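Researcher: Quick sanity check before group meeting.
Model: Go ahead. Protein one:
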Amino acid sequence: MRKIVGQSSLKGLFNQMNIPQFIILEGAKGSGRRLMGEYIGNILGANVFSPPVLNIACIREIIEESRNISKNRVYLLADGDAMTRQAQNALLKLAEEPPLYDYIILTVEDRNTLLPTIISRASLHRMESYTYIQLQEFTDNELKLAVCTTPGQILELPDETADEICKFAKKVIDNIDAISTVNLFNISKYLDVTGKGDGYNVNVFLDMLVYVLCQSPACSIVAATKRMQTVLKYSRLHTNKSINKQMWMDSFLLELKGV
């Protein structure tokens, strides 16, 4: 299997413990949750199956299959944040009475997107943060090392795109005081606000804004600090799956300009 960089405490824990039959792996996108799930499957000597979608039909199919399993099998349910309440309730039935050879690993960015009853029946583990040295195993690009916090972010972000987003972020900061409200909202046209892949990654853009403000703020230190606080505030809000992303972006741009 692929090498896991870092995560030494988590790997050590899973190697020493009796693997629970229901595990939640929490961590940022690109933090290696899927790879850790495969690592756990390797410890168990089990085949790992990862369904492409997590709907009610998929969960019911897993429940039906589990009745006929005679050796260890791991179901790696990736990006569980997207599961509907109905799908989670279906999964709960499996979590309450897991078959002898059935192991469920659910990966999420934020545990709060799950039903409390799901969390209460799982062994919850959070992916460890990566050090600068660990991230250097994936790139020597200083800009990417400055703004990326996970291997996945680094690997998915081409060097030239990182440069483009940095220049765009600098342009926004340099001109936001003078830009009109109408043109302010045009900024979002260059960003993948809705997650359809039709612009720059919003999370990378936010991180790049902080980087630009730290490097050479085009305003006073006080204003730059307030703007960084605004970026960090809206970065946290962006993890909420239920918010309207376009309204979130419009509010962010208005507050960034209004500082």
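Researcher: Fine. The other one?
Model: Protein two, sequence then structure:
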Amino acid sequence: MPNVLNTEWLNSNSQRNFPFRENESLIPDNNTEFRLPNYIFVDFVISMPADINTRVYLASMLVVGEFVTFMFMDNANNLIASLAIQHTQHTTYQSYNITGTTSLYDDVRGKIILGDLSKFRDDVMDGTYSFTLETAEFEPCIVRPDLRGVRTITLTDGTVDSEPISGRVKLIAGSNAQLVYDAVHNAIIFNALSPIDGSYNQPCDCNDYLIPPAIRTINGIPIEDVEFTGDGKCVEVTKEGNKLIIKNTCSTPCCGCTELEFIKTNTDLVTSNITKLENYYARLNERLDQFITNALLSS
């Protein structure tokens, strides 16, 4: 019987597909001559919103010099999280925290452990390696369903949303409001309370103060001493409700639009006749000058 080697959990995983499914090929669809080495991923666990149909896979691996970026997606091709490392600074079996990077999975948390990457640059060239759910799916046991009923709470004021509130959230009643826990229905009841005086406004200490008038002075004269009077000739001041009506009685027109239209029409007619007369005068003057010239030439 052969000796059993690398019985430790992480050592064993560095020589097999785990945490990927055992039957996954780990061959990228854009480079069929390459296979993802088993020693890169040796352990992985991630907590996600509870859904028995959620499956997780390695979508891509981007290698540029000393830096490596891994992208993780679900079976609906939604981005879950990403991890960027500097493989030259990595130590064997170092763990990295995973945090959801999209609004759909912003409360996802996980931890991933990478193995011995000392041979990484010998086995992996620069470039992007793309995988699918059929070639790089993780084992179902690494996805831990998050059974929290409420993932986060967001307050909305008009069109502005607050940052998501998570963890232990306390609801505090404000003015004229009461929060009651209903153990039977496992619910919180919001009650609106009517104060004793029937007012839903907070009490104000300024109710005993007199509100000053909106207009206090006019041109420096206190409003109680101001008096509006006409000049007795062309200005008349009258009061109508809360209005002061000031009339100029000397500038009322003596005629209306009908009379003005008649005057304009006749003015235009006179102007036209004057223009005709000026034209006739010009022609007559030209003929007179021509007659005098001919008379002088014939004498």
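Researcher: One line on it for the slide.
Model: Residues 228-299 form one domain.
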